[in-house]
Amino acid sequence: MAFEPFEKVALIGLGLIGSSLSHVMRREKLAKAISGHARSAATRDRAMELGLADTMHEHAADAVRDADLVVLCVPVGVCGVVAQAISGALKPGAIVTDVGSVKAAVIRDVAPHIPDGIHFIPGHPIAGTEYSGPDSGFASLFENRWCILTPPSGSDAGATARLTAFWQACGSNVDVMGADHHDRVLSITSHLPQLIAFNIVTTAADLEEVSQQEVIKYSAGGFRDFTRIAASDPTMWRDIYLNNKQAVLEMLGRFSEDMSALQRAIRWGDGDMLFDTFTRARGIRQRIIEAGQDTDKPDFGRGGQQSDPEALPDGKDPNP
Amino acid sequence: MAFEPFEKVALIGLGLIGSSLSHVMRREKLAKAISGHARSAATRDRAMELGLADTMHEHAADAVRDADLVVLCVPVGVCGVVAQAISGALKPGAIVTDVGSVKAAVIRDVAPHIPDGIHFIPGHPIAGTEYSGPDSGFASLFENRWCILTPPSGSDAGATARLTAFWQACGSNVDVMGADHHDRVLSITSHLPQLIAFNIVTTAADLEEVSQQEVIKYSAGGFRDFTRIAASDPTMWRDIYLNNKQAVLEMLGRFSEDMSALQRAIRWGDGDMLFDTFTRARGIRQRIIEAGQDTDKPDFGRGGQQSDPEALPDGKDPNP
Predict the structure, then answer these.
(1) In this structure, are A23 and A164 located in the same domain?
(2) Which among A123, A136, A145, B95 is least buried, having the fewest CB atoms inside 10 angstroms?
(3) Is residue B114 part of a domain?
(4) CATH number, domain containing residue B91
C-alpha cells in the first residue's frame, strides 16, 4: 500500500538525520513540500543549495506553520527550547516527533509545550555515520535499520500508526516500546560503546612514551575501529550523556566490573577464563549479521586505501 | 629492484596470516617453493586443496627442512614449543621469523632454541580481519599496513634487510624497533581495544532486563562495531594477554582512570568536560585517514545488507 504523502513536513535541524530524511522523502515522494529550520545562516544557505527544503526559515516557528509532520532533528538538549519556540505555530492535528537517542528526557522537556490536539510521538531511528552536517545525508541511511517509537500513554493510536508508516516508507523497521526501556536498551547498544570509544582515544592521546604518530601508524591493530565512532558530533553526544545519566552510569558500572574480572584474569594468568570469555563474545557477531544489522565482509568490507585507486594514486606509499 | 625469491619458504600454521602470506608470495613470486605445517589434518588437507603450499607436513620439522625462510604463524603461546620442534631441522643460514602480536615473550621462548648460524628476526604484520583459518587469507591483506621487526641486539643486519625486503614485496611498510617498545605500542593500539571489545560484548550478554534479541536488533547504534573485533580467534588473543601482561595491565589502568573521570562528569552533569573530551577525540580520526590506515567512507564504507543485493535478495526484510 502506497504511503499517502504529507502535505508539508518541517525539518527542524538539517544535520545528518535531517538531510537524510529530506533525501529519502524526495526519493519516495513522502512529502509534497519540505520546510526547514537551521540556527546558522550557513546551514540554511547550504540546505537550499542542496535542495534539502523548499523553504528555509530563520525561526523554527515559521518552518512549522501548516506542517502536518514536524521532525525535531536537533541535539536532545535543545528539544525543549525548540518545542517552546514552535508551540504556538503548530497546526491542529499535526504530528510532532523527534529523532533523539534519549527518549524519557525528551518527553520531559517537550511534552509540556505541546498544545492539545497536536500529537507528540517521540522517535529514534537507530542509524547514523560518523559524519555531521547538511552535506552528510543520504537517502538509504534508514534502510533496514530499526526506528523505535515511544508514544506516551494516552497517545493517539492513529498518529502512531501514521508515523510508523512514514518510517517504513523511509525503509526502516519500526518497534514501539516505553521510553524508559528504550533508554536502557540504547545505553548498552549505543551510549556505552560510544563513551568507551571516546575514552580510549583520549587514553591513547595522553601517553608519554608512545607517540601520537605511532598510535596512528599502527592503528590497524584494532584502535582505528574506535576512532570512527569517536569522530561523531560532540554536542549531540554530550547531550545524550547528560540526559540518560542513570542508565549510562549503571551500564558503565557493569562494564567496569566485568573489566576488573578480565584484568584479574590477566594478572593471575587465568587463560581458561580469558578463553571462555572470548569464545562467548565471538558468538554474537554471527547473530547480528543474520539479523541484517551488519555486513559479513571481512573488516566491514572496507578496502582502506589499498583497494581504492582514487585514495592511493599510482600505488604510492602515503607514508613516505 | 625486484625481490630475489627465496628457494623455499616454510609456513608453520596456515590460518589468516599464513594463508595470506601464501597468496601474496604466489602472486608476487617471492618463493620458488612453499612448504607448510598445520597441526590438524583437516587444515593440512584444506591447505593442499587451496594450493597454499606445495607440500604439507604433519611435523613442523619436516616442513622447515631446506627452507631459507621459516615463518611461525601460530599463536604466540606455542612459538616456543614449535621452535624446539624445528630446531634440529633448520638449514644453516636460514631466517626464522614470526608474526605474533607480542615480541618480548616470543624472543624469550624462541631464541634459546635457535642454533648458531640461523637468524631469528621476530616480526609483526599489523594486519588482519575477524576471520580465521586457511580459507580466510587473501593476497592484499598486508598492503599498506605496517610490519614491525624487532631484531634482538647482535642480529645479522643482512638478515633483517632481507626480511624487510620480503615484507615490502608483500606490500607492507616496515619499521624496526625494540621488542619492549613494540609491546607497549601494541598494547594501546591493539591489545587494549580488543580487550574492551570482548568485554562490552560480555557485559551486554549478561543483562537481565535487555534481551539478547534487543541488543542484536539495535546494535547499529555503535555496539556492532565492537562485535567485529570480538569475533577474532580466542586462542590467539588469550596468548597475547598472557604474554604481554605488564603493558596491557598498565594501559588498562590508564583507561580505567580516564573512564572514571568521564563517569564523574556524567554523574555531576559536567557538560563542558564531556564536550572537550569528545572534541579532542574527534581529531585523531582524520590523521589516521591521512596516514592511509583507514578509509574515509562513512561507516567504513560498509553497505550492510542495504546496498548488497546478494545479501538481501528482492529487497526482502531479513527480520520478518
Answers:
(1) yes
(2) A136
(3) yes
(4) 3.40.50.720
pLDDT band at B242 (very low <50, low <70, confident <90, very high): very high
Residues of chain B contacting residue A280, judged by C-beta atoms under 8 Å apart: 201-202, 205
**For residue A204, which of A190, A188, A217, A189 has the smallest C-alpha distance?**
A217
A221–B311 CB contact, under 8 Å: no
Closest in A189, A226, A238 to B219, CB measured: A189
**B67 in the same domain as B113:** yes
Nearest CA in chain A to B319: A291
Q: What is the CATH number of the domain that holds A271?
A: 1.10.3660.10
Tell me what ipTM this predicted complex has. 0.91
B138 and B211 inside one domain: no
B258 and A203 in contact by Cβ < 8 A? Answer: yes
Evaluate whether residue B116 is within a structural domain: yes
Sheet of strand B69-72: strand arrangement: B55-57, B31-37, B6-12, B69-72, B95-98, B119-120
- Judged by DSSP in three states, A245 sits in helix
Same domain, residue pair B50 and B154: yes
Give the span between the Cα atoms of A145 and A38, in whole angstroms. Answer: 26
Name the DSSP class of A256. H
Q: Quick check: A227 and B194 CB within 8 A?
A: no
Q: Which residues of A fall within a CB distance of 8 Å from B292?
A: 304-305, 311-312, 317-319
Of the candidates B227, B290, B291, the beta carbon closest to that of A284 is on B227
Q: How far is CA B172 from the centre of its chain?
A: 14
Q: Which of residues 125-154 of A touch B (CB under 8 A)?
A: 126-131, 136, 138, 140, 143-146, 148
User: Is B154 within 8 Å of B127 (Cβ atoms)?
Assistant: no
CB contact under 8 A, B188 and A195: no
Which 290-309 residues of chain A touch chain B by CB within 8 A?
290-308
A18 has a chain B CB within 8 A of its CB:
no
B119 and B185 belong to one structural domain:
no
Using CA coordinates, name the residue in chain A closest to B296.
A304
Q: What is the mean pLDDT of each run of 10 residues along chain A (320 residues)?
A: 93 98 98 98 98 98 98 98 98 98 98 98 96 97 97 97 98 98 97 96 91 92 92 96 98 97 98 96 90 91 49 32
Three-state helix/strand/coil letters over B137-168: CCCCCCCCCEEEECCCCCCCHHHHHHHHHHHH
Of chain B, the percentage scoring pLDDT greater than 90 comes to 89
Number of structural domains found in chain B? 2
Let me know whether A213 and A279 are in one domain. yes
Range of the domain at B47: 7-177
Tell me the sheet residues that pair with B215: none
Of the candidate ranges A298-307, B59-68, B310-319, the one whose mean pLDDT is the lowest: B310-319
Set of cell numbers at residue B257? 582512570
Instruction: Say if residue B202's pLDDT is above 60.
Output: yes
Interface test with A, best of B101, B202, B229, B308 (most A CBs within 10 A): B202
Question: Model-level pTM?
Answer: 0.91
Q: Which of A39, A38, A41, A4 lies closest to A19, judged by CA?
A: A38
B177, B199, B217 — which closes off a domain?
B177
Helix (H) or strand (E) holding A120: strand A119-120
Specify whether A12 is located in the same domain as A80: yes
- Residues B269-306 pLDDT 10s: 999 999 999 999 988 898 999 999 999 999 988 864 33
Q: Domain check: are B116 and B202 in the same one?
A: no
The answer to the question of residue B306 being in a domain is no
**Cβ contact (<8 Å) for B204 and A226?**
no
Residue A122 lies in a domain: yes
Q: Look at residues B120, B151, B177 and tell me which one is the last residue of a structural domain.
A: B177
